[in-house]
Amino acid sequence: MAIATYCLVALDCPDPPALAEFYAGVLGGEVKQHNDDWYDLHAPGGHRISFQRVPDHRPPDWPHADENSQQLHLDFTVPDIDAAEPQVLALGATPLDLDDKDGSRGWRVYADPAGHPFCLCRS
After folding, report:
1. How much is the pTM?
2. Which of 15, 78, 100, 102 could serve as 84's disulfide partner, Cβ 3.0–4.6 Å?
């Protein structure tokens, strides 16, 4: 029997509404403001990602876990990485590791505008 039910993932960031809109551009869904420091993205399928204001936020130093771990990262499946990549870049993503070994690796790594790593993964 489960002890708990999954609710959400919360990301620390300096600008919650901007980061919520970035992920709405990637995933779709509706952004809702809880207060000035907390925004939620209600993504299709009933999933929720929240964004919490942290004025002195330091982004993870991907992939150097020995000094400043990546803390967490998000994976998103896409039918075509080559088509999805320019779309996330246009939304403000930064490439971190695009070497997918000519497609054999199956994912590419980016950072969102606040510096959190996320992967586009071949579905």
Report:
1. 0.83
2. 78
